[in-house]
Amino acid sequence: MATDPEAEPTARAARGCALTPAEGAVLAGLAAATVRHRLLGAEPALAPPGDPVLAERGASFVTLERRGRLLGCIGSLQPVRPLFLDVARNAGRAMRDPRLPPVSADDWPELDVEVSVLTPAEPLAVAGRAELLAALRPGVDGLVLTDGVRRSTFLPAVWAKIADPAVFLDRLLVKGGWAAGGWPTGLAASRYRTVEFHDRAPRGPLGA
Predict the structure, then answer these.
(1) Do residues 53 and 84 touch, judged by C-beta distance below 8 A?
(2) Is the dihedral of CA 69, 190, 80, 176 positive or negative?
(3) Nearest to 187 by CA among 129, 135, 142, 134
(4) How far apart are alpha carbons 171 and 56 in whole angstroms?
(5) Engineered SS bond to 129: which of 60, 111, 183, 206, CB 3.0-4.6 Å?
(6) What is the tens place of the pLDDT at every residue in 119-169?
(7) Which DSSP symbol is given to 206?
């Protein structure tokens, strides 16, 4: 039976976001360029990249920090658009993360940009909190919780700040609007992995 190629995961995504360092550098540079253009009041030119892998559908998160202080973190959990467009879109959205003050021109010289490319999410067949904690791989798994209405996720990078699995889970529950320490009726969990790429400060003048 014929399949619609637009409805299928890409071969690269199925292998676990196995991007090369050069491909990752392109994505991180694109995210930084998107922020720069937006700060200058312009829209970035988003021509298809020379590497066709970056034009395959993919899911990403973009994290913006200044001296280790979070300025924004926005992303996609499902591969619904070409990866390079997803990165550019999330970079622009991370500048206006609703939880935080907007990124400003003052932040630019010390702005660190991180792009996380996600593997497809893997549903976890767990019946409750204890089973989920036993299945979690600290430092490896990103975690998604959903009850069909609300959804909450932590990237694997969050393990660097919250090493205890029980605390990791409780913080994610609270982030999603649920009570810590429990397991709401109808809650489902899935996990994914990421590969991170960086475009770090210091930076030259914004208008250069």
Answers:
(1) no
(2) negative
(3) 129
(4) 33
(5) 183
(6) 999 999 998 999 999 999 999 999 999 999 999 999 999 999 999 999 999
(7) T
| Reported confidence tier of residue 9, pLDDT bands at 50, 70, 90 | very low
Residue type, 2: A
| Residue found under tokens 């292998």 | 15
3-state secondary structure of 68: coil
Residue 5: asked if its preceding bond is cis (omega within 30°), the reply is no
Go through 1-16 and write b for each residue having 16 or more CB atoms within 10 A of its CB, e for each that does not. Answer: eeeeeeeeebebbeee
What is the DSSP annotation of 124-177? E--SSHHHHHHH--TTT-EEEEE-SS-EEEE-GGGGGT---HHHHHHHHHHHTT
CA distance 40 to 33: 11
Predicted structure pTM score: 0.87
Nearest to 111 by CA among 62, 154, 150, 76: 62
Gyration radius (Cα) of the chain, Å: 18
Asked if residue 191 lies in contact with residue 141, where contact means CB atoms within 8 angstroms, the answer is yes
Structural contact between residues 59 and 68, judged by C-beta atoms closer than 8 angstroms: no
